[in-house]
Amino acid sequence: MKYVSEFRDPVAAKSVLAAIDKVSDALGATAAKPIHIMEICGGHTHAIFRYGLDKLTPPGIEFIHGPGCPVCVLPRSRVDEAVQLAMRPEVIFTTFGDAMRVPGTGKSLLQARAAGADVRMVYSPLDALELARRNPAREVIFFGLGFETTTPSTAITVQTAAAEGLTNFSLFCNHITVPEPINALLDDPHMVLDGFVGPGHVSMVIGTHPYDFIARDYGKPIVVAGFEPLDLLQAVLMVLTQISEGRAEVENQYARVVPEHGNPASLAAIADVFERRPSFEWRGLGEIDLSGLRIRERYRAFDAEEKFGIGYGAGPRALAEPDGCACGQVMTGRIKPLQCPQFGRGCTPDTPLGALMVSSEGACAAYWQYGGARLSTVAP
């Protein structure tokens, strides 16, 4: 299979769905007693809803939406600190578009821009670096967000800034890692998880072995998957097959993209620029040990937290969610978006309470856009 159309072939999809039905029935899975499969990546959540896979798979399969949306897991304290940086008159604050509308306790970055802050959307950290070159009298800060997928480009940008001596460029680093929050979820006695669909893009960078602990220590199968309908259906079938055979292994459905040992050049750039934080705060999960990255000492001149004395550079702080916001519960798979009393009422894409409704990878945004939620949740 070489072309996108082949991964969306309805005939092939029906064949895989029939196999899923057969294994699901053999396992005795029902709507009342389903098999719980967590798709870690927010991109997978959106693909499941975009293609209606949650409706095509049997009722004995329940998808649990994991914390794989980096904007969504960003705590409000970090949004507040980003706004604080952006409001400084000497600063040009640059960010990916997803983060613009995420609410803090006071303003979002979009509202900060409306209030006069120089906030600019970029498509790459290298765009921010170019702004620093063109504006030597201004401090240009890049809002570094994302899992291991986006971390290499940020690392290369910091290396380039150091090589060029661009002292007016800095990074507000919020890069995080995937395995640690999964470990935290598996340690939660209230979580019921039977298997995982592993992230595709992250695994392209880190490979498959960082997930070994899931199978080895917790006895849960995980299958790294691509983003097309047949990718996800095949991954579900592979998870079910492992369960039916009493196996718990790390398998790679996305082998056409994901190498077993990841991307050595990307991993080398990350290792050169970043080191693990002792801990990092996640929305809905709290502080998780060794789950965030910070800039190494040799590149500390490009660390906005150190440069401007905010964030973990000034000591951590935790902020509660706004009243009625259930982002933390949704993001950790404890409830579905439709179970949040604010969904479609007090929280919409135009007036979000939390990041899950505005991020392109947020579970609430997926339900709103693809799940027919607008019709089912509008108050009479």
What does this structure look like?
- The protein has 380 residues and is α/β, with parallel strands linked by helices.
- It has two domains: 4-70 and 179-252, 3-Layer(aba) Sandwich (Rossmann fold); 76-177 and 263-314, Rossmann fold.
- The chain contains 16 helices and 13 strands.
- The strands form four sheets. A five-stranded parallel sheet has the order 2-1-7-8-9. It has a four-stranded parallel sheet with strand order 4-3-5-6, sandwiched between helices. The chain has a two-stranded antiparallel sheet with strand order 10-13.
- Helix 2 runs parallel beside helix 15.
- The longest helix is centred in the first third of the chain and has 17 residues, at 10-26.
- The protein starts with 9 loop residues before the first helix and ends with a helix.
Lay out the secondary structure:
Blueprint: H1 10-26, E1 35-41, H2 42-50, H3 53-56, E2 61-68, H4 76-86, E3 91-95, H5 109-114, E4 119-121, H6 125-134, E5 139-146, H7 151-164, E6 169-175, H8 179-186, E7 195-198, H9 200-206, H10 212-218, E8 222-224, H11 229-244, E9 250-252, H12 264-273, E10 274-276, E11 279-282, E12 286-289, E13 293-295, H13 304-308, H14 327-331, H15 363-370, H16 373-377
Parallel strand pairs: 1-2, 1-7, 3-4, 3-5, 5-6, 7-8, 8-9
Antiparallel strand pairs: 10-13, 11-12
